Amino acid sequence: MDDAFAIRTASADDDHFVEHDGARFAGRHLLIDFWQARHLKDTECVERALCDASAAAGATVLRLDLHRFESSGGVTGVAILAESHISIHTWPERGYAAIDIFMCGDTRPYEALPVLTAAFEPQRQEITEHWRGIPA
Question: Active-site residue among 29, 39, 85, 104?
């Protein structure tokens, strides 16, 4: 692996929670819908997009797993990160992809978006952000 995926060392006390706008929480969870997207059957494109998006966000890829469905050509993929995950599920017959980015620590999940947008060229996208781990 190249330097973009260097493993970070953390102390036993570090819970990797994020602090933002006075709140302390587990991390940001982005739910992304791509419509009229391209390359949704292309496992090489999906793999490259997951790796490049992880690197852009400052995350450490631990493992990558992809599966292409023969019936539709759709792809399900997940990058398991030291900081959580990025996953994608594609429906090429509908031009749709559901992408999930959950990251904790000092990562920058929004930095993954331009990489994913460039890879799949959606005509329309919707993004929802959730802060995970905020006590009720």
Answer: 104
- Catalytic residue, from 51, 84, 85, 130: name it: 84
51 a catalytic residue: no
pLDDT tens-digit readout, 3-49 = 333 333 344 456 778 777 777 878 899 999 999 999 999 999 999 99
**Residue closest to 80 by CA, chosen among 97, 62, 68, 98:** 62
Chain segment 66-114, per-residue pLDDT in tens: 999 999 999 999 999 999 999 999 999 999 999 999 999 889 999 999 9
**Calpha distance 92→62 (Å, rounded):** 27
Contacts for 104 with CB less than 8 Å, ≥ 6 apart: 16, 17, 18, 26, 27, 83, 84
**CATH, residue 74:** 3.60.90.10
Number of domains in the chain: 1
Would you say residue 87 lies in a domain?
Answer: yes
10 within a domain of the structure (yes/no)? no
